[in-house]
Amino acid sequence: MNNNDNTQNFEIRLLGAVRKTLIAVARDTMTIQSGLKHPLSQATQKMITDCLDIVISRQIAIEKSSGSHTRMKPVYTDEKTVQSFSIDDLKKTLN
Length: 95
Prior knowledge:
- By secondary structure, the protein is mostly helical.
- The protein has helices at residues 3-28, 42-66, 87-94.
- The protein has one domain (3-84, 87-94).
- It is 62% helix and 0% strand.
- 1% of the residues are buried.
């Protein structure tokens, strides 16, 4: 593994750790009961959102440069999904 691969692997691990930490902070400080004041200020909440945006943007850029980026979006368990496919692909599968 060359130095560039090591650097990129480190960056990927670092971005993943930062993203997971920011999400955990947001989740742990979320107020469940209505009427409660959020423990983080609006400015801090905005900073967390901005940091997550930067981290995710960089992760996508790395994935695109390595050719591993997909445009898949998360699917929620209560969301009905419809899969589409081309007839040509179906014919190939059946043959």
